[in-house]
Structures are given as structure tokens and as C-alpha cells.
């Protein structure tokens, strides 16, 4: 799943490549992925891209046309979505239901992009909106952890009183925006913290470590993603992981084996030596440390 660093990489790329271009066509290939009807998706046509922004894991392109209000093309790539960029957009006809393409956007210089989604479970979503706040997922977002206003005390306030495992807190977009399964694993490894630690029980020292790990991990990942074209971002993400997706490999800090806990539709990875005092986590949902 693309998370904040990869989404920011896409935003940086689109800012450089698409700003100033006019939209000539927005072709819907998966109507179920289009979550709005007013304004219609065709309202994007004729507008020029003026800004590209990120809201958590949402990408927001503003299309501005003289004499009418701006329209925002906003999309969330979900678990298996991606953006495929073309310097010269293919002329092939899109056949709905016969392709992984959900939306094709064409620009006036011949370039463009497809929003695609692999697999059978479809959750990619895109919107035409008058304002980002009209998108429910954006309206409910918590603070961005790389925002200058996100201080150590901000994090402490978000954690206070929450009898919830810290792994789940980091992934909850209404609490902290932009962090998903992969980077929550990486942050907790860097903070030397169990994914099952309860947020409300963290000491001041724990919060200090968690705050530093969050800022440092995400800053490094955003820097690594910066300047890369969309086709290279996924591999760059995988190469930068210390524990996530590295089950059975050696922890780069202590050399212990990276272990997994599997759930219904995902898993978490951790190092027992670095994070749980050497204790192995039981491999079942809502488990605690093995006795």
C-alpha cells in the first residue's frame, strides 16, 4: 500500500511534470471507483493543473479554468492502486471491466496518466470535488506527522488515555495522517517498542523515542522518494525497509531474525530482540506476549 513517503513522491513528480498542463480528457474505466457525481468528472476537462498537494495518503490535483471555480481531482490508491505515467499517452481504447485501469487523464501536451488497481478486491477511490474538505476521508484526517506544528507534545496528547495498541494508533488516519502498515512497523522498530504496547501506558521516555522515530523514519523515507518517477517508488520503498516485509531475514540492528504476526488480510513485522525484550509475539489477532 502506498503510504505518505510514496504519495509525497507522486506529488513531487506530478508537481514537476503536470503543473501548467491542461486536461483534455478524463476517461472513467471503473465507475465504482468514482465516488462523486457533483461536480461531474468532465468538469476537469479544460482546466489547467495549478497545484498538486498531499492530504495524508490522498493526492489532490487542482484544475483551474478561467471563468469557473476550480475543480479538484483527488485520489486514494488504497492497498493495490498505483499511478502509471506516460510521456505519450497510449491511444488504445480502454474497455471497462477488461483492464486494471480505473481512470485515464490526458493532458494537452500528449502526456497523461492512468490510475490502476491490481487484484480482485477493489478499493481505489477518486473524486471530483470543489474542495478537499468535501472528501470524507480527508475531512476526518488527523494531523500530519511531518507538519511543523506536529510536536512531541502533540503526539503525547494524541496518545493520552488511549487503551489501544500503539500499532493501531499509528495506522488510524483520524489520529495521525499518512502512516500505514509498513511505516508503522518501521517506526516501532526504530523506537524499540512493541507493536502491542498500549498507547496510554507509554512513559515520557517512550513518547520521546516514538516521536523521534516517527519524524526521522518518515523524513528519511520522503527524502529517498523525492525525485523518483512513479515506476521506481515501490522498489525504493522495499529497499528502505528494516523489518517490514523482511520476515526470516536478519535485523539490521541486532542480527536477530525478523518475525511476523499474521492477521486476516495483512501482517506486521518486528524484531523480538530490539522491540519485545526477546519475547516472541503469538501469531494470532489481538495476542499478547507469549508466556
From TrEMBL:
Cofactor: Zn(2+)
Annotated signal peptide: none
Pfam families cross-referenced by the UniProt entry: Fapy_DNA_glyco, H2TH, zf-FPG_IleRS
Catalyzed chemical reaction(s): Hydrolysis of DNA containing ring-opened 7-methylguanine residues, releasing 2,6-diamino-4-hydroxy-5-(N-methyl)formamidopyrimidine
InterPro entries, alphabetized: FPG_cat, FPG_N, H2TH_FPG, Ribosomal_uS13-like_H2TH, Znf_DNA_glyclase/AP_lyase, Znf_FPG/IleRS
Keyword Zinc-finger applies: yes
All residue ranges annotated as the Formamidopyrimidine-DNA glycosylase catalytic domain in the record: 2-124
Domain FPG-type: 242-276
Key words of the record: DNA damage, DNA repair, DNA-binding, Glycosidase, Hydrolase, Lyase, Metal-binding, Multifunctional enzyme, Zinc, Zinc-finger
Keyword Transcription regulation attached: no
Family label: Belongs to the FPG family.
Protein name, as recorded: DNA-formamidopyrimidine glycosylase family protein
The species this protein was found in: Microbacterium dauci
